[in-house]
Amino acid sequence: MAVLAPPPEPVVAAATTTGGWRRRLSGRRTRFGLLNATPVVVYLLILFVYPIFSTLLLSLKGEDGGFTLHWYTDALTGTSLDILLITLRISAETSVISLVIGFLLAYWITRLRPIWAGLVMLVVVVPHFISALVRTYGWIILLGDHGLVNETLMALHVPGAPFQLLYNELGVVIGTTSVMLPYTVLLLYAVMRGVDRGLIAAAASMGAGRLVTFFRVYLPLVAPGLVNAGILSFILCLGYYLTPALMGGPKQTMVASLIDEQVMKNNQWNGASALGVILLLLTFAGLLLLRLVKSVSEAAKNRGAA
Amino acid sequence: MKDTRIDRRLFLRGLGAVAATSALAACGSGTSRSSGSGGTSSKTLVVRNSGGAYGDANMKAVLEPFMKETGIEIKVINPNYAQMLAQIKQGRPQFDLIDNSMIDFVKFAKEDATQQIDYDRLKTAKNADIAKNLLTPTAVGKNYWGSVMAYRTDAFGGKKPSSWADFWDTRALPGNRSLQHLDADIPELEFALLADGVPLDKLYPLDLDRAFRKLDEIKGSVKKYWDTGALPGVLLGRREVDVSTVWHGRLNDLIKQGQPLAYVFQGARRQSNGWAIPKGAANLDAAYQLIDYSLRPEVQARFAEIYPMAPVVPAAYKDMKDEVSATLLGSPKNLDTGFDADVEWWVANDDAVTKRWQEWARV
């Protein structure tokens, strides 16, 4: 998440010498700031850093107490590897679909009058306050073989109906997409609001068609938001547990379910820790990708400016 | 871009607030018991059970009357096996008494997590003629329950499944099936073997290769493996599946509401559940009192009337109406329709079966 925040101010210059450090620390404001930061730092150390490190240690501990990597080889072979790949695939599908739908929805919202925009926003976000379990059972009532969607399709004599919309990959992706949608809509809406309408008008006045304006002016302007939203929903989806467990079939086991099974069923904390660390690394990889895309696009922009 | 930054910051702050609230809520439910309530002076007894309809029935038939009679306050919590084990290992369990399946108690005993039962403190149990295998060194049995088949009576055009062979016969009775997930309890391998023609009394030791071969046959028709006790009711009620396995008793409310559902007792797998006291329990006296109370014949009968789990105390059948005892899997009349899960076999082979099932279910 930290990557989503603005980049930190450059502090290198002032802190290169020890004198600079001392001067900085002796300032009253700095001391006051450090004092203020202490509770948060202690809080994070105890509740965040310590558990992650003990998880890491647990994942490297063999049955005899020594160092081992075999929990990782276990996690990266056989069915565990399949589950990891399925998780990645479902997360990718989810992030692409929620980006597309989120883009359309957010774009539509920016075109609405403020009062309507607020209302639509509410409709997008409010389902998030309902317990995930209730929401998912709602999906079952909607998407089941005899659910609302299939009954309607059958009444309309759509060929092939009823479709299986639950207990397969489609069901999981529908569920996870709906969970991720508020995040993508909120992020994209924020970016789209910041787009200067004048630029669009300028492009049009210079003879660009609607499609050209969209692809060469609008899309590049909202691209940072797209990357952020896509990677955020991908990362959130990686560790998602409830929806895949409830809306998927046996073949849609995701890593989070596997971890749950290892801890709750097999009493196998080491293997579960290894899987947890792998998920964490994947998350970092996603964030790194975000950084990379950003710096590449910055570089491109600078080159364009020059 | 300046504006969007601020918006994003606001958004992040919002996210942070949501995360913080949920984290706080999680902390609230996870706090350990304060030392004040854990002392011997306290009268609160903390009981663990699996909740749901079973928990409600327990409250009504056993816990509430017990509170009234003794003045002891009872609090019920529902941690699962792994959570309980972790708490006991930490030395300060939040509960004084565990209500769970006897299979889990064998595992607890292996982990050295439960106390030796002092049978001298259980006056009722001593002379109640309870089956020997339910009075183990660390656990006391209290009810028989079981897994059975259940189906929609409006599904198969008037035909009714009556055995596991019918459950497996997707040609004669086409429709979606549901089986129990590994997360819920030991897998239902016995049903596959019964469907394959193994007699009720020759099931154990289970022939794993044969069971999984038979399970292969039905895999394509299994739409969902249910992982919570309430799910078979949802799946059957929403017509997602036409026939399923289910913990007996879980459909009673739906049937009362008029849903066209029925149980099949033939080939039922019976298990028992009971009481055990965790090491580090704070309120031993009250725990023993409640165990003893729950084994009184009238209490056992009262529970069976609310929830179809059979008493372990034979005398309970004396005051019981015939229509009640007919609904119980474990009542003497129904004993030859099913079989008892072999606890010893399952505990010895659970890990191996678990691994094999996990691999099988995902391919």
TrEMBL record, chain A:
It is found in: Cell membrane. Keywords: Cell membrane, Membrane, Transmembrane, Transmembrane helix, Transport. GO terms for biological process: transmembrane transport. GO terms for cellular component: plasma membrane. InterPro entries: MetI-like, MetI-like_sf. It comes from the Bacteria. This is Spermidine/putrescine transport system permease protein. It comes from Lentzea atacamensis. The lineage of its organism: Bacteria, Bacillati, Actinomycetota, Actinomycetes, Pseudonocardiales.
UniProtKB/TrEMBL annotation, chain B:
Its main location: periplasm. InterPro entries: SBP, TAT_signal. It is found in: Periplasm. Gene3D superfamilies: Periplasmic binding protein-like II. The keyword Signal applies. The keyword Magnesium does not apply. CDD domains: PBP2_polyamine_RpCGA009 (cd13589). Residues 1-25 form the signal peptide. Coiled coil: none annotated. It comes from the Bacteria. Keywords: Periplasm, Signal, Transport. This is Spermidine/putrescine transport system substrate-binding protein. It comes from Lentzea atacamensis.
